[in-house]
């Protein structure tokens, strides 16, 4: 299981490095070229989300005593993913000075305040969206913890049931042993009685 997790880690590192590079290029582009790069990054981010889901499933299959280490690594990857998504959203509304001047033309000076206002509004919208996403992730994490807790509880109940059956079997064997000892005791008592009678007869 750990080998599969490590393979996913390598894929995660490769794809996120490509995404980081592309996010840095987005503000320098405009028009169709920028749109295509944004779509490409969005697709790669979806691949990373799927990788994280696979890694999450792998961690659940790892024995409990080794799970903490992998959970810690997975948590750091999820945090890195959150940062990438945040940087990506900002890059989509950001423009380099060269691109901004090209878009605004001669009205660059007069439209600067409008552009700043638009950025602020978009940043505020992105901030609210990120808050909703964080709340959703916290709910999902809570659900996963509940599922894992239920699984651990089921394992404990199964172990208790198994122990109970072992104790019951041990008690049954003990009862059988007691019964056999009682039977043996009666047989020995009978033999002793016969010997006593035999000795009495010989004495007479």
Automatic annotation (TrEMBL):
Top-rank taxon, per record: Eukaryota
Protein's name in the database: Vesicle transport through interaction with t-SNAREs 1A
Record Gene3D superfamilies: 1.20.5.110, t-snare proteins (1.20.58.400)
Family membership noted in the UniProt record: Belongs to the VTI1 family.
GO annotation, cellular component aspect: cytosol; endoplasmic reticulum membrane; ER to Golgi transport vesicle membrane; Golgi apparatus; late endosome membrane; SNARE complex
PANTHER family hit by this protein: VESICLE TRANSPORT THROUGH INTERACTION WITH T-SNARES HOMOLOG 1A, VESICLE TRANSPORT V-SNARE PROTEIN VTI1-RELATED
Keywords assigned by UniProt, alphabetized: Coiled coil, Membrane, Protein transport, Transmembrane, Transmembrane helix, Transport
Any GO BP: Golgi to vacuole transport
Subcellular compartments: Endomembrane system
UniProt topology in membrane: Single-pass type IV membrane protein
Species annotation: Oreochromis niloticus (Nile tilapia)
Residue span, T-SNARE coiled-coil homology domain: 124-191
A GO molecular-function annotation: SNARE binding
Coiled coil segments of this chain: 34-180
């Amino acid at each position: 299981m750990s080998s599969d997790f490590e393979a996913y880690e390598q894929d995660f590192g490769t794809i996120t490095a490509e995404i980081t590079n592309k996010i840095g290029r987005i503000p320098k582009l405009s028009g169709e070229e920028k749109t295509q790069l944004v779509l490409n990054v969005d697709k790669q981010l979806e691949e990373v989300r799927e990788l994280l889901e696979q890694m999450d499933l792998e961690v659940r299959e790892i024995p409990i005593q080794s799970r903490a280490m992998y959970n810690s690594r997975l948590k750091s990857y999820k945090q890195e993913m959150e940062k990438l998504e945040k940087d990506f959203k900002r890059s989509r509304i950001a423009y380099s000075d060269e691109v901004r001047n090209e878009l605004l033309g001669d009205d660059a000076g007069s439209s600067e305040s409008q552009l700043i206002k638009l950025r602020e509004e978009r940043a505020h919208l992105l901030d609210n969206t990120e808050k909703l996403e964080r709340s959703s992730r916290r709910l999902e994490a809570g659900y996963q913890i509940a599922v894992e807790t239920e699984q651990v509880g089921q394992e404990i109940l199964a172990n208790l049931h198994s122990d109970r059956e072992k104790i019951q079997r041990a008690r049954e064997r003990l009862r059988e042993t007691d019964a056999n000892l009682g039977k043996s005791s009666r047989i020995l008592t009978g033999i002793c009685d016969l010997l006593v009678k035999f000795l009495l007869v010989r004495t007479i």
